[in-house]
Amino acid sequence: MTHTDPFLALSARTGRFTHGSPRAAVFSSDGTRLLFLRSTGPQDPVERLWLLDLTTRREQLVADPVALVPQRTGDLADLPALERRLRERLRLWAPGIGSFAATADLSTAVFTLDGRLFSTSTTDRVTVELPTAGPAFDPRPDATGRRVAYVSDGALHLTPAPALHPGGPLSPADGAVWGVAEFAAAEELGRTRGHWWRPDGGAVLAARVDESALPARHFADPAHPDLAPESFAYPQAGGPNADVQLWVLTLDGHRVRLRWDADTFPYVTAAGWEGDGEILLTVADRLQQRVLLLGADPVTGTTTELSRTTDAFWVDDLPGTPARLDGGRLLTAADTPDGTARSLALDGKPLGPRHLQIRRVVGRLGGRLLVEAGEDQPADQHVYLIDPDGGGAERLTDGPGVHSATAGGESLLLTSATPDGIHRRIRFRGAEIPLTDHAEPLPYRVVPQLARVTERGLPTAVVYPRAHVAGQRLPVLLDVYGGPGAQAVANEPRRWQQRQWWADQGFAVVTTDNRGTPFVSPEFARAIFRRFSAVAIEDQVAALAALGERHPDLDLGRVGVRGWSYGGYFAALAVLRRPDVFHAASAGAPPTDFRLYDTAYTERYLGLPQDNPEGYLADCLIEDAAALSRPLLLIHGLADDNVHPAHSLLLSEALVRAGRPHSLLTLPGVSHLTAGGVMEQLAALELDFLRTALA
Asked: Quick check: pTM over 0.85?
């Protein structure tokens, strides 16, 4: 596949306008230094490690992967399947330094390149390669930076190995995988780590993952014949999950298993050490309706319940909570009694303004809580400081956009993504310091026409061609996601670039966040409980009708729909069940039968298949195949480990049996996270399909 469209070509070359942007920024504990990743320019995908000294405002390159590993050798094929897929999913595999970990003072940073482990002294900018037992994954330094824990071949190792135990006491070979986050944790539960150093460096808290009870998923990918056929353990809805244990492993060889009711609370959603050596972990039951914060004694392994959150639907994760504040106080999420806002509680008592929709607790700054939250307009996000004693809030950002924050010591990095572009500024000792960005300027300044429509207040956006003349009727392209956990209508400029391109091809591009999507209210999100399809279809159809009344140039007699993942599911659902409204669909990686999807995501919303068979059947698209009367394009990567290609293949087979014409495009070597220009090439193909289908 090739594309010659200037915008699509530029988007592909610049990594969708992200190459050259600083990311993964972290402050030193005293707030005087900032370590981050950034490539050298808009068409350079190789990310390097940089250090900004805020006292001198001097920026220095501290690690250059091009100098360390001139030619990439591609170690992914040598890694166990779980480690390889975690590396891909968490962006730990990249042309440069995909991720790093550093000591609190940022004096030492560690990272891997092609499975080789490197340690960098940021003070003198000297990088050395460390010996490893094999291809290394997820390295973490201790507090001093002198010792590094890493995973290789499913075992947790140290380098250098403890002198008393050559070979390393942290690499037990018992058939389980040590030191990594299992599929459910990394993909659905927000926990991407599997090992944590004790603050003094004398022990490691490590996850032990046993996947032997899980069914195998198989792949035969023509793009990687050396890896095919491949299989990996997959936690399928209604079936067994990985057995996850947490162990304290000391450098002198002692091992203690943490004990809690893992049968009732099998999910470990967070874990780590406190400064005084206490362990805190968060566990959830299978349906995620009960979440416990536990304190663990690292000597005996016993745990004590510190807080309990329950919900008749599900407990939504609020990043940064639960947490222990100074004085032992417990910070937890707490929805308002009327279900209109996501808020906070301190020791069980409401904290902060009740109108804020808290999205993330970033940390502490100057004795106050630093949070990201929304107000009346869900498309915007702002940064606030909340006083944990008085509850008052101060807003630090202004204007429409998605504003986010990172903090350390008394320093603050604010990132403001607004219709005018993306701007980063550091507040340090009363001054503002810009953080250099080498990314390609965004081609379009897009100001989508936002509106809340219907009695449910559905967030919507309409983007017209730049050359549109009022009175010219346009076919409608619904660019949709629609699933839980992801917001589509947001004032973040990069996400509107391709939608403007689609509009300039002759469409009015419509985007709607139906009920079930986040950041409107808890009540809004929970409307899809035990049934995905009915609410999504009802809301998207109602929103189109309402927008048609507001925008007379929308030709609702020609409506195409496109989406990826859950959006692909909705696109296929739309033409199968409402062909009177939707006239063509391009469905990328659609989960056509949620009985085949993973446990943690699916069961959170639909329950167990054996307890809700009607709901699972109602959301399954396979039985709808005979109803297809509109053009449908199915697209699926053959290396997709999130939504297995079987989902599209099963629907295609059912359509063939029913004699329903459709198009199926399979992509060798393409995973669920389509990168490297794949999406741009697909956009050109989708455009041809939709133009023909909508005539």
From this structure: yes
